[in-house]
Structure formats: structure tokens, C-alpha cells
């Protein structure tokens, strides 16, 4: 475990990968929303309100993050209602959110796509 990441909170707050040192900062939340075409018709006040919903304030501006929080499914014995693992989107290194130890875990950014038709049929018995 590196000094950069010692516990759950610092994984969430980390701005770079402790392994490959890629940048985990995905930009100021207000700026990202303001420049997003989806919100082009929003007033600055509305965008600020949207940014506030992520915890962003003018006094304490925060950034979107790129690190991937992994939750285990409900049917997993180790399920916890929150992030159990953190993964770097670039080098795919994965850490246990509680111990900070590296884990061997599937690359969640490269999972096979779910075939919606199969999924729907699977739901009917
Ligand atoms: Zn990395």
C-alpha cells in the first residue's frame, strides 16, 4: 500500500493513480456541467445548483473523478452497500477499499456487453 492511498476516503479523494500515476481528476464539476451540451440552455444559477448536488460549492470547488468504484452484487456473500474495490481506469490496478491491498479482479471497463434480448428472456421463467 502506498502513502497516497491509506483508506477508503483517500481512495475517493485521490487525484492520481498510486501505481501508474495517471491523472484521476476529471475536471471541475461546475465547468464540466457548464460546457456540457445537455445543459446549454441552463442559466448559470441552474448549473451551480446542479454542481451543488455533487457537493461542489464556489467556496470549495471539487472535481469529477475517474477512478472506478466497484460494488459487489447483492448475492455476493461479501456484499457491502457501498464501494468494495477501487480500480484505476488506465492501468486497471484494483485495490480493496477497506485494506488498500491490491486485488486481482476483472477489468470492469472491458466486460462483455449484456445482450438485452437474452437478459429479458432470462427474466421470464
Ligand atoms: Zn493506474
What are the defining features of this structure?
disordered N terminus; binds zinc ion; alpha+beta; 125 residues; four-stranded antiparallel β-sheet
Task: Give a verbal description of the structure.
The protein has one domain. It is 23% helix and 14% strand. It contains four helices and six strands. Strand 4 (85-87) and strand 5 form a beta hairpin. The longest helix is centred in the middle third of the chain and has 9 residues, at 44-52. The chain binds zinc ion. Zinc ion (ZN) binds next to loops.
Give a short overview:
The protein is of the alpha+beta class and 125 residues long. The protein contains 4 helices and 6 strands, in the order αβααβββββα.
Order of helices and strands: HEHHEEEEEH
Inertia-based shape: elongated
What is the average of the pLDDT values? 83
How far do the termini sit from each other? 46 Å
Ligands, deduplicated: zinc ion
As for the number of domains, it is 1
Q: Largest sheet, order of strands side by side?
A: 3-4-5-6
Radius of gyration: 18 Å
Number-wise, the strands total 6
Poorly predicted ranges: 1-5
β content, as a range? Answer: 5-15%
Helix content: 10-25%
What layout of secondary structure does this protein have?
Elements: H1 8-13, E1 25-28, H2 29-34, H3 44-52, E2 63-65, E3 68-70, E4 85-87, E5 94-96, E6 102-103, H4 116-123
Antiparallel strand pairs: 1-2, 3-4, 4-5, 5-6
The chain binds zinc ion.
The site of zinc ion has 8 residues, from loops.
